[in-house]
Amino acid sequence: MGVLVDSEGLTAFNSHWLIQDRWFALPTVVWEQIDQQQSVLRAFSPENMADGEPDRLALGRYPNPTLLQPVDDELVDRLDAWRDEALKSALSHSGVDEHLQILFAKLFVLRTIEDRGLAPQVTPLSAATDGPTTLQVRNLLKTFREARQHICSDLFDDVNIAEIPHYVISGIINDLYFPQKLSFTGARYNFSWIDSDVLGLAYEKYLSTILQPRPPTPQLDLFRESYRDVARISVRRAGGVYYTPTYLTKYLAGKCIDNFLRSAPDGSIPKIIDLACGSASFLVAAVDTLLDKFKARDPSKNWAREFIDGGYINGVDIDERQ
Questions:
Q1: Exposed, middle or buried, 112 (CB in 10 Å: 0-12/13-18/19+)?
Q2: Do residues 293 and 310 make contact, with C-beta atoms less than 8 angstroms apart?
Q3: CA–CA distance, 288 with 151 (Å, rounded to integer)
Q4: Using only C-alpha atoms, what is the Rg of the chain?
Q5: Quick one: DSSP state of residue 129?
Q6: How far apart are CA 116 and CA 110, in angstroms?
Q7: Where are any strands of DSSP class E within the chain?
Q8: CA separation (Å) from 299 to 126, 268, 271, 292?
Q9: What integer pLDDT is reported at residue 275 of this predicted model?
Q10: Of 203, 211, 128, which Cα lies nearest the Cα of 171?
Q11: In the chain, what's the furthest Cα-to-Cα distance?
Q12: DSSP per residue, 44-57
């Protein structure tokens, strides 16, 4: 909940709610009537905000807003829907879910580097689709080749999309651009604004379940396609899949690096390994910390490339999907 102030007056809003398919906002209080709307002003005092008074005020006037999902839940729900779709129509299991997991990691990275401008030589993923159901395979493979060349990541060394229906791939790409729960046009994800912690949570939730197709239902109608139900199996507890919040990873990585630099010879770069890296939240925090410290020493040097190419950042995990 917050307040927008302009030349017309004061407007209270809640960016987590929708009302009548628009962002939730109370009627604007014009400056000429501000004295008659002291209840709105009082609701936004620090004490009343902590007590939830703005929400009570808003719900008293509009009692049934639509609640928006957090970004990580929205992304995971959409991606899980595509997993269901792919597996229900699969003639056999043939590792479809595993291929989807790997594909998702590739697409996630590509959307992040696109919106953050980290590799402008790589063709955007949007070039690989003509709408939500049509995939331009040649363009997608071109993007993967360019990513392999300019990002220099092993993630793009092995590209296998043959096991996944093309309309599923196109749908996933589309859902990484456009939120589905917003009914008005023009809304689009901006991965340069989405915090890496949110992206990590989404990936952790995605990895925490595997989908297993059950045997096809008896084929009673020769003219209908065969159909498979899908069993969802949680591996979170068995695999120890938990994402560590950013404030903890930053604090712990920073303490370790500070301790090393205090005792190491000048110019030494610590070698960092995470033996249970998962989605690499600790490694990301370590790289961020190192970049801050070493850029202060030599701003002109490409320290990120130095850390990666020099083998200073390493992670392993028992889960092959990580």
A1: middle
A2: no
A3: 18
A4: 24
A5: B
A6: 10
A7: 2-5, 9-19, 22-25, 29-30, 66-67, 209-213, 230-234, 272-274, 313-315
A8: 34, 17, 21, 10
A9: 84
A10: 128
A11: 75
A12: TSHHHHHTTHHHHH
Q: Which residues contact 13 (CB under 8 A, 6 or more apart)?
A: 1, 2, 3, 4, 23, 24, 25, 26
Q: Which amino acid is at 194?
A: I
Bridging pattern class, strands 272-274 and 313-315 = parallel
Structure tokens at 32: 């000429």
Q: Are 169 and 161 in contact (CB under 8 A)?
A: yes
Q: What is the DSSP letter of 155?
A: G
**What are the tokens at 39?**
């209840």
CB 59 within 8 A of CB 39: no
Residues 212, 93: contact at Cβ < 8 Å?
A: yes
Tokens, residue 214? 């059950």
**126-180 tens-digit pLDDT:** 999 987 788 999 999 999 999 888 876 677 877 777 778 888 899 999 989 988 7
The answer to whether the beta carbons of residues 287 and 313 sit under 8 Å apart is: yes
Sign of CA dihedral 262, 265, 270, 271: negative
**DSSP states of 66-91:** EEPPPHHHHHHHHHHHHHHHHHHT-S
d(CA 219, CA 227): 9
Can you tell me which residue has the tokens 């953050």? 116
pLDDT tens across 16-47, in order?
788 777 778 888 888 888 888 787 778 878 88
Give the span between the Cα atoms of 26 and 61, in whole angstroms: 8
Which two tokens mark 187? 């809304």
Q: Tokens 């901006």 label which residue?
A: 190
Enter the pTM of the model. Answer: 0.65
